[in-house]
């Protein structure tokens, strides 16, 4: 089943350009507000919506706001055809994002380019929202996990903690702020520093060792450590769990 391009108010010549640019898509039209809403409800088939601002479509303002609402958080790309000043006038002063504007007369090349830019922008926003939601989940797990945790990064002088949770603070007595200024290796008992230095060269390791608390007391723990990677494959941090 082909994905769709929804055209609203397009001229015959514009339709031919659209079909030439996207031959593998199905081109459908809407001539009423109800039809437009119905076509958009057929997710995920409608991928691109083209609205010609010069059309004599009844309820143009209502249609525009409907399109904005229904495509904002969906994988649908809305393009408004027309000159920017004409668009603002036709939409009662509303000014769509520049990425949603496609000047007329349209060409195959300009259509493809603008759709691509629109898709990239929506993908970036979607990824940003997803990353933000993931960050909230990770932060909740980090702060509420019932064991000592630390995230550290390589600063050229050994691993330096950037964030520890309250269980870690209770374990060694150092606050999160204090840990930001401490070289983690100095917390390891001198007898165990060599074996830990060797272990940290691995992507993941489990090690029994002795740490030194803020008060100077030895604390026997098991450290489980895992290197964390970005989507591009670059290592950006090391997550450690300490079990006493």
Would you mind describing this structure in some detail?
The chain has two domains: 4-136, Response regulator (Rossmann fold, 3-Layer(aba) Sandwich), CATH 3.40.50; 145-243, PAS domain (Beta-Lactamase, 2-Layer Sandwich). It has a five-stranded parallel β-sheet with strand order 2-1-3-4-5, with helices on both faces. The chain has a five-stranded antiparallel β-sheet with strand order 7-6-10-9-8. With 244 residues, the protein is α/β, with parallel strands linked by helices. The radius of gyration is 28 Å and the shape is elongated. The chain is 38% helix and 27% strand. Helix 4 links the parallel strand 4 (77-81) and strand 5 (101-102). Helix 1 (12-21) packs across helix 5 and helix 2 (33-40) packs parallel to helix 3. The mean pLDDT is 79. The protein contains eight helices and ten strands. The chain has helices at 12-21, 33-40, 60-71, 84-90, 108-144, 166-172, 176-179, 193-199, and strands spanning 4-8, 26-29, 46-52, 77-81, 101-102, 148-154, 159-164, 204-212, 218-229, 235-243.
